[in-house]
Predict the 3D structure of the following.
Amino acid sequence: MSRWNGNGKLLAFAVVTLAAVGVRAEPQLVFPQGSDQPLAALQDIDVIEHLGERIPSGLTFTNVAGQPVALDALLNRGKPVVVTLGYHRCPMLCGLVLDGLAKATQAAGLKLGKDFTAVDVSIDPAEDSKLLEQSQHRVLELVGGGATVADWPFWLSTTDGAVAARTLADAVGFRYKFDPHSKQFAHDAVAFVLTPEGMISRYLYGVDYPPRDFRMAVVEAGGGRVGTSLDKLILACYKYDPAARRYAPFVMAFMRIGALLVFFALAGLMTVLWRKEIAMRKRVVPGPPRTTGSVA
């Protein structure tokens, strides 16, 4: 009875702590079912952002066909790469993260394979390739638009790939933990956006990605090679807010745009007034000089 009370107090404390430190549901955590140490799980899983850092080269994995594949092969193609780390036996958020990205792609008007590529890497060395194929099929159906398995590959972490998955996770700051009792992983719900060269550009948290934020993250990672001129203008007026973990209006940008609009308005007004003054001067044509005659 005392043991149950102790565990119950720990669980209650964890719930209260989560409610106190984070009103929003991002990032969302996956806890192994049956875990007796929720506080320990909280301490061991996290996302440490490494923005601007390059992921290691030479990381190899295994595709669903059992063939070795290299992460480097997806880079330097002029397209951002959206990376997810998870496992497909996950009873909670892993599938929701993938589905959320697929829906955001469609809602944002982006073309998978054209505007960006994606890759899912399993962190579970015991993962079954058939399970990955089922997840991949579901995700590609959600994306639509003729997306192919080459546009969003799903990779296993068998044998040496398990080391590669851990290396990739460490590089992007994705800290997860395996619970031997439930044989599940505790981890955050997050996706990583890489530049075409493999630099970490943005972190996308949760399972529901606003289409505007998703599009802006991809356009930003593309460095001007993805998106339209309007996207670049909008991106200049919005800035990523790390506290809110979303893009918000950039006040200074709007002030600069407002100042430019006022400048052009004043310049236009001065031009109109100047032209009117010139036209009025041309209408007033001076007559011949008057002469006074002398009387003899």
User: Anything to note?
Assistant: The chain has eight helices and 14 strands. Helices lie at 2-21, 38-44, 93-107, 129-143, 161-172, 211-222, 229-237, 251-283.
